[in-house]
Batch of 4 targets.
Target 1
Amino acid sequence: MTAEPEQMNPLMNTYPPQPVTFVRGEGTYLYDDSGRRYLDFLSGLAVTSLGHSHPAVAAAIAEQARTLLHVSNLYGTLPQREVAATLDRLIGADAGGKVFFCNSGAEANEAAIKLARKWGGGAHGRWVVVSAYGSFHGRTLATLHATGQPQKHEAFQPLPEGFRHVPWDDLASLEAAMDPTVAAVLLEPVQGEGGVNPATPEYFRGVRRLCDERGVLLIVDEIQTGFGRTGRWFGFQHFGVQPDVVTMAKALGNGMPIGACWALDDVARAFGPGDHATTFGGQPLATAAARATLAVMEAEDVPARAATAGARLAKAVDELPGVAAVRGMGLLLAAELSAPGTAREVAACCLDAGLVLNAVTDSALRFAPPLLVSDEEIDEGVALLAAVLDT
Ligand code: PLP
């Protein structure tokens, strides 16, 4: 590991000092610039769900790079349409929907917010988006305002208008906030960055009912929870509700940057040519990676793998001395530590010991291993964590 003087670092100071430089990854393992091996239980923040350098995804990227890299959205390309059809099938709405591709999670939510405003009639109709305290929806100005963490807003005021926050998992507060200016409710099934806090099924069903009664869109942010991570293809599928709009990114390209905003046909129709666009969104390299990622995910039945592996990991971590409780769904888990305020130090010690995970709050560690993680790798990671907690 290398500590570098600040003036030597050519990167903007937006991230904490980076304690290690990774040069290679294979499956659940990462290797640093001195050749040291680490077990990766974070997957680049829930991105590399098939593990590092998956051969099918790597081959698809190499093949597409030799075939066609980019032509813009003025012209059609093949992988884009195929991925859109697969996403529509996995989301499983009876009525069917349509997809807009972009390059990140924040852009997917930005597209959803614009779509909701256009659908709602903008400033002459409905335009407000209601989201929850503790949520995370991105860092662009609009998605930052949708993010229910006021401490992150202050330095960037004034933020775009039209956002309102309510307490998480509290239906009465949401109902009180839904006046006739509200176009959409935007929620994560499990608040990821907010501390791995799952919603209750009753809350999501209640939100769906309220949205139906008031003619408001339900936008579900599946950026962290999507693609099998929680034990279903999408987190909302645990709750038996059908969203109007679903936003995705992270694991969709297994590391290739790609985001997507799906909406029911009737809602998607609000957008016409010129309403929204991006130069790179859905370009062939990203969508070829996504096509290969989704094909492997379906062949491996990653939701089932996440459910089984998640149960094993949650049980083993819960039994460790020093862990007060484990929460989450599938392979998106957090361990609340018994000693308050120690999570960052414990995560740093885990890295020293060769285990990659992160402190999602001051007192909780987040686990998001690849969905193909083996039982032996889970046992190895738990043993590394146990040794750190022991000292
Ligand atoms: N929404 C959720 C639920 C997320 O977890 C994240 C990122 O962590 C985002 C949106 C923003 O995604 P991106 O960092 O790709 O812009």
Target 2
Amino acid sequence: MAENITRLRKPDYLMVVTDVNALNRAAVDEIKTAAEAAIREHGRFSIALSGGNTPRAVYALLAENKDDFPWAKTFFFFGDERSVPPDHPDSNYRMVHEVLFSRAPVPAANIFRVSAELGAAKAAEQYESVVREFFKLPPAKLQPGQFPRFDLILLGMGDEGHTASLFPGSPAMAETSRLVVSNWVEKLNSDRITFTFPLINSAGEVLFLVAGAGKAEIVKEVFVTEGENYPVQRVHPLHGRLLWIVDQAAASLL
Ligand code: 6PG
């Protein structure tokens, strides 16, 4: 029997671009648009950066916007961090410092690094208090609807569907009240520090950046299969915009 191939109706939150250069340009445009809107609406732009390789070139391209970006009103956070010091090759902060913070006029006071050198549990606690202070939140337990709203959260996706440091089967998948937690990742045999789903889903906008043929299988899986088996499938901003920018190589099986 001929295989019943149903062309997936691409959801309106999926933007497929030709290649990684187009992805970098589209991502920078999206960041600039979000920054302008946020500053117009409430005078500042809060962005949480993702780590890994894909966003590296996006940050480098953004840094080229010397005078064409509101650096002084932009506040940089990290959606996750590895349990390493800031000068370690695996540090997300180190990567962003190399390609962005060391090249653009970002005020040091506008950079909120995860103090991962404290150890994951302490660093997560400390980062949660930094986020709460930035958004002027009390230390009390947050109820749904009280979570702070980052204007933009950038995310990537691993080849097993993880995002930030929310990996399938990891303890943080079940977190519903904290903003930032430490998370043991079995497959990496290491602890990570990560934003939680409630915090991610409170964002004004979540922007996924996914590129390369190596992601084609997982992209097909997460867009074609129903349910929330994969962490990325649990990212649905409650009152914000969701946008996936994916290059053709990663979208080739859709
Ligand atoms: C990290 C990231 C992680 C990343 C994915 C995809 O700290 O590694 O936050 O969630 O986005 O692993 O990484 P690539 O973009 O390098 O494939």
Target 3
Amino acid sequence: MTNRRSPAHVDAPLSRRRLLGLLAAAPVVAVPGALAACPVRRPGAAARDAAVPPQSCVITEDNIEGPFFLPGAPHRAVLVTPRDAGTRLVLSGRVLSTDCVPIAGTRIEVWQADASGAYDVDGFRFRGQLVTAADGTWRVSTIVPGRYLNGRQYRPAHVHVKLEHPRFAPLTTQLYFEGDPYNEVDPWVRRSLILPLRDAGPGKMGRFDFVLASA
Ligand code: FE
């Protein structure tokens, strides 16, 4: 045993230095989503290094598909064209398993409204599908979606996503943006799906890690 301690040591009050040391050594309990909160774990790392404490990433909440999904969107990560109106937005992040291992080869379908809040139901404007890279990362260039009326109330700005991978449970959900006043009144918003946007040149950027359950 390398970490045997005397009873006196165990019973002694924690010094500030020791407390900070213990906190630094504690396993991270990850909150998925905004600001890439999940720690990265290399594929196979847990099996190779039994001394590394287990990590866990929380499965991303699902959310309604809505009526505007169209299958067969083009494979592309750039959904915006130079002539499109709207604030440019780059969304990126990773797809992880519940033990925080990046999932390569996840298919992500993205669809959203244009700047005026309209979906293209005759074509594939602001629709696309992409596949996560070897490190589980994804990235989409688009615009901040416009809000649209659902009955008499606007839905907050949101981006729809579907994720699929043969070894994991499929996920359909939506991403929302911090500071949207309609987040407070929309019945479908979930706090865990709200991400902050920060300024990036003339546009915005935001990060979100998806966590998939095993199939
Ligand atoms: Fe929608």
Target 4
Amino acid sequence: MTNNIILRLAIQRKGRLSEDSLSLIKECGINFSSDTSKLKSEARNFPIEFLFLRDDDIPDYVADGVADIGIVGENVAIEKGKNIDHVKKLGFSKCRLSLAVPKEINYGGLGFFNNASIATSYPNILRNYLKENNIQAEIHEISGSVEIAPGIGLAAGICDIVSSGSTLLSNGLKEVETVMHSEALIIGNQSLSTEKKELLRKLIFRIESVQKGKNSKYILLNAPNGRLEEIVRLLPGMRSPTVVPLAKKDWSSVHSVLNEDEFWEVIEKLRAAGAEGILVVPIEKMIVWLLPMALYFT
Ligand code: PRT
Ligand code: ZN
């Protein structure tokens, strides 16, 4: 038992990470008040407390142990360079950190940035990237509205977060290099007690079950027994498909789980193999012990 031990999770108070972070926790069956105007909130049915903070402060709080874990963009986790564990990528708030230049520039490669100045809010990531690529550039650190820097003559280019690309476009810029890809990430304090690690393991187990469910579909179909072998071969299932006889002679019902990525391709093959009455049902949660999580906790 983990009596009175509470895991403290830092979540962005307001911004691009907040909503998806809160929904993910709720999908894990954890009930709490998501009123982020408060500083803290405690769950009613899981030993976890939420701290609502600015995303830039979260790596510090986690490194110092004020929070045990936090959800931030990988870009922030890496930029802050704190001693924290990167526990689990969450698959939302996907974006990239890119170099961009005015669209009229005839860009011929990274050499363009030699002896040029680049405006960014990510000086550490940019410095490493330039070093790895042997480029000598001057880094102008600015905290917001980076995209206006070339237009006002502050820098030749910028290094900033890009998602749809429309901010660059509306500021007359074009993306020329990707420095890193980023998504939301759970970070963790490096000296969590055994009890807190156990709570974190439980939380991640739930998160992975929700994510796996979202990426999978439950499929039911009818098949003539003569084609069963071929159809079963197309459906891996969690272990193997379930096959039950139909009331109609020489027919069976086959149930299985399909991954979203291979879904349409397999459906086509099933149809060609004689499957009929195919039903597809969403899966709320799928309980599987996944390897990356097992590795983190061993
Ligand atoms: O107030 P607080 O400090 O907590 O929040 P913030 O304003 O610093 O961060 P926020 O909420 O903007 O972003 C939080 C995290 O979301 C970032 O650290 C990224 O990991 C991730 N993320 C995903 C993004 C974007 N997409 C994004 N599009 N962060 C910022 N942007 C900005 C970008 O800076 C640029 O101004 O959106 C603009 C570009 O978007 P497009 O779609 O026009 O390309
Ligand atoms: Zn921020």
